[in-house]
């Protein structure tokens, strides 16, 4: 079916509201996406009619909740192109997923002096857990810069590899520059060298079709609230061979088979990595969100977002007093910018909000990238499948007001 953005917008009740007397123009989906009615309904139904704890309960509600909760694992596997649903670990999002890799895999397989290769545009969620290993184990972090356009050359990543490299951890899509990284080339070359790869899919999985087995990565975390699902939901794909090298990083109920005074016997993966009562309702809602996306078609969504991106790029390029960061030819519909002069990103964001335009202002959890760019903060307009060219025009109008106020 052709992509009908008007029909999609009608599925999101919040998009019909006003802010400061103006129609809401929501351009902060890179931080967290809005939720379609089907997800809202699923969460309401799960709490109001179907709630119980999952696993081990023998009553009707527990069986129903377990069936719906566990069914999401297969949905995520289908969404990510994973042939085995047991390679999917359910969690609260990318941050937990990367920490699981740090504690469950890296702490077991790395030693002092071993190296982790990162790009300078990583989100803090894909930086701080590796700093933990640097502080506690003596692991070395090796940084690779982006070029003047914001592109990350796969060869530069591979050139940073030494005999001590044990992991390459890179984003698939920059949350600031919009840069799309050729992670497939990196991952396939790394596997030939026996080096593990983690691809941060927080943004990539939102804007393009994903096939983790084609990419060839070992770890691929995603976050539910960026994929139009509830906050507190997410998952990580772990290649079976790497999962066999891991130990559980958090202990509690569900991740064990037997507990004795002198020993424990862990559950089989992926349950081994899912301790405690999970985000049951959040995960059920996440599954509904992914079904909604697959119903629209990720290729259709990507095509619509490219059209909005191209229109936005043309309009923004016409503002010679606006400095847009990241000019990659294949970038996603994410635009981070500053205004010439002394206007701070927070001031710009405040003025835009008065016009009903919601953008993000700050460092966007990318301290090393901001240092590389020589900036302290930017505004970021991140477009999603429900945004339109008319909303691009609203952004431009609001930016022109900012220019008049701050020039």
Automatic annotation (TrEMBL):
Superkingdom as given in the UniProt entry: Bacteria
Pfam annotation, one family: Aminotran_5
InterPro entries: Aminotrans_V_dom (IPR000192), Aminotrans_V_PyrdxlP_BS (IPR020578), Cys_dSase_SufS (IPR010970), PyrdxlP-dep_Trfase (IPR015424), PyrdxlP-dep_Trfase_major (IPR015421), PyrdxlP-dep_Trfase_small (IPR015422)
GO MF annotation: an example: cysteine desulfurase activity
Keywords: Pyridoxal phosphate, Transferase
Reported cofactor(s): pyridoxal 5'-phosphate
Biological-process GO terms, alphabetical: cysteine metabolic process
Catalytic activity: (sulfur carrier)-H + L-cysteine = (sulfur carrier)-SH + L-alanine
The keyword Cell inner membrane is annotated on this UniProt entry: no
Aminotransferase class V domain location: 25-395
Keyword rRNA-binding belongs to the record: no
Enzyme class: transferase
EC number: 2.8.1.7
PROSITE patterns: AA_TRANSFER_CLASS_5
Function: Catalyzes the removal of elemental sulfur and selenium atoms from L-cysteine, L-cystine, L-selenocysteine, and L-selenocystine to produce L-alanine.
Family: Belongs to the class-V pyridoxal-phosphate-dependent aminotransferase family. Csd subfamily.
Protein name: Cysteine desulfurase
Biological classification of the source: Bacteria, Pseudomonadati, Pseudomonadota, Alphaproteobacteria, Rhodobacterales
